[in-house]
Amino acid sequence: MTIIRRATLDDLDAILAMLEDHIAACGNDYPQPERTVVAQTILSSFHHTAPLVVFLAESDGTLTGIACAVASSYLWAKLIQTEIRLVLVDPAHRGGPTFLRLVKVVRNWAEEKKSVQITFTLASGIDDERIAQTLERLGWKRTGIDMVRDLP
After folding, report:
1. Of 20, 51, 92, 152, which shows the fewest CB atoms inside 10 Å?
2. Does the pLDDT of residue 59 top 90, yes or no?
3. Tally of domains within the chain
């Protein structure tokens, strides 16, 4: 059974190992700037300086997925938008419910933060089209490489 929970500092080694496995599998196709953004997002989520969050999916004690998100406040408009920075699912668990469960928990977190919109950029090159079609069925809209959903 897969559980979704918030990451803690104790999870950092497992998170970085999964990320490195993903980067190694992508080879040279995984851009260096993206590596830096992902690592910074994960590491900065453990500090209380910004509204960042990391959720983990685990099955039988094994890490099977990671989701990172940030809520940004636009003070001049008094709006908050949440951006999903990363959803990474272990290859053995792709096509199952892990991706959707991670997106759902991030969406719930965004609603708690009073976000008016949630975005997810499709730029990994891994199942981007299938992910876009799945999110469209769930009410998301495609705007270029971004998927967008307004929140209540």
Report:
1. 152
2. yes
3. 1
